[in-house]
Amino acid sequence: MGVYLFLYAPLLAVLVQSFNAARFGTEWVGFTTHWYRQLLHNQPALQAVLNTLILASVSTLIATFLGTSLAYGLTRWRFPGRDWIERSLSVPVFVPDILLAVGLLLAVATAQELGLGLEPGMPAMIVGHVTFQIPFVAIVVRARLAGLDPTLEEAARDLGATSWQTFRHVTLPLLSPAVAAAALLAFTLSLDDFVVSFFTTGPGATTLPILIHASVKRGLSPEIHALSSLLILAALVLTLALTALYRKPPIPS
Q: What are phi and psi of 20, to 5 degrees?
């Protein structure tokens, strides 16, 4: 119980303060939902929400496709460099975010010098998020692939199915819970990422974590508490959905 209190007490404090009628300070003066209503008229906050959802959705779609393809290729195919890719797959997971962000910043600067058209802003942020999302997607999907019975695919081929038909009608349905779980994990990681977004952002590409960071430097306000509470709630819902999907056993068709 003490461990849970230590972990979640700060989050609970933010949630409680979002309903505190006090404009300044942390003293409780009464219950109110005014700060949540105030957010509906906060144009910078609404734009940050839109940017965050666009960034998370686009990067998740790209990372899910690439990560699933990578996991399938590593599990089912043999090719030169396969062992090296397998060993290096988990490296981005353990590399500190700040190192990845600095590397991405240098990559964007190099792309600008070469005239590749990659400017700081939403495109660079999408590339950055896809970079750290792919390993998580590949690891989750590959774990599921390792547990699939290869004789199911062999049986489909023996019955005359092509490689695409086997993948479409046998492998993909069995993989769908893991793919969905990996996509939710990637979306959650993108939703609350700050470091990579901060180093690759540009004009008009402010996300919620960046907005909260900038607002905190000017002093905490009840609206920031409300915004943070909504972000915590979104992350909690996605995490619970991720857990439910990943634990649900697939039903062979």
A: -85, 130
Kindly give, in sequence order, each residue whose CB lies less than 8 Å from that of residue 134, ignoring residues fewer than 6 positions away: 63, 66, 67, 70, 92
At 213, the amino acid letter reads H
Nearest to 49 by CA among 30, 57, 241, 5: 57
DSSP 249: P
Q: List pLDDT tens digits, range 18-64.
A: 888 877 767 788 888 888 888 888 888 888 889 999 999 999 999 99
Is residue 7 a part of any domain in this protein? no
**Residues pairing with 31 in the sheet:** 20
What pTM value is reported for the model?
Answer: 0.81
Tens digits of per-residue pLDDT, 103-118? 888 888 888 888 777 7
For 144-166, the pLDDT digits (tens) are 888 777 777 778 877 788 877 88
User: What length does the chain have?
Assistant: 253
Q: Which domain holds residue 96?
A: 50-247
Position 75 in a domain: yes
Q: Kindly give, in sequence order, each residue whose CB lies less than 8 Å from that of residue 169, ignoring residues fewer than 6 positions away.
A: 156, 161, 253
CATH number at residue 153: 1.10.3720.10
Distance from C-alpha of 174 to C-alpha of 72, rounded to nearest angstrom? 13
d(CA 96, CA 12): 27
Distance CA 86, CA 31 (A): 53
Number of domains in the chain: 1
Please name which of 43, 45, 53, 52 lies closest in space to residue 225, comparing C-alpha atoms. 45
Output 68 or 4, whichever has higher pLDDT.
68
Query: Does residue 15 fall inside a structural domain?
Result: no
What's the rounded Cα separation, in Å, for the pair 108 and 246? 35
